[in-house]
Amino acid sequence: MQSKNKPAQTAAERRHVARVKLQPCGVCGEGGGESSPSEAHELEQGQWFTSIPLCQDCHRGPHNGIHGEKRMWNVFKATELSVLNETIAKLYGR
């Protein structure tokens, strides 16, 4: 669902987000691929090129999610920037 507070994605942003969603969750490693795409979380609202792939639980889960208590994030010592770094490395073939 698109928020009313941010502009629609450009074609380039849509392509980038589609590639991000194919990656497994940047925190727990679950999901990814065509059959189980990850959710794209923007580090700052509307800035789609800094999106990271997260499974539903690590994104919106009340206990593990970035919008919740971030328990899984703490277990893996993950931050938004560390996950962004890994996402970019995977997208560009590291």
Give a topology summary.
Layout: H1 11-21, E1 39-42, E2 51-54, H2 56-60, H3 71-75, H4 80-91
User: Helix count?
Assistant: 4
How big a fraction of the residues is strand? 5-15%
For the termini, the CA-CA separation is 32 Å
Structural class: mainly alpha
The helix/strand order is HEEHHH
> What's the main sheet like?
2 strands, antiparallel
State the shape: globular
- The spatial strand order of the largest sheet comes to 1-2
How large is the radius of gyration?
13 Å
Pick out the low-confidence regions.
Answer: none
Q: Which quaternary structure do these chains form?
A: single chain
Short description:
The chain is mainly α.
Write up what this structure looks like.
- A two-stranded antiparallel sheet has the order 1-2.
- The protein contains 4 helices and 2 strands, in the order H-E-E-H-H-H.
- Helix content is 35%, strand content 9%.
- The chain has 94 residues and is mainly α.
- 26% of the residues are buried.
- It is globular.
- The protein has helices at residues 11-21, 56-60, 71-75, 80-91, and strands spanning 39-42, 51-54.
- A hairpin with an 8-residue loop joins strand 1 and strand 2 (51-54).
Keywords:
94 residues
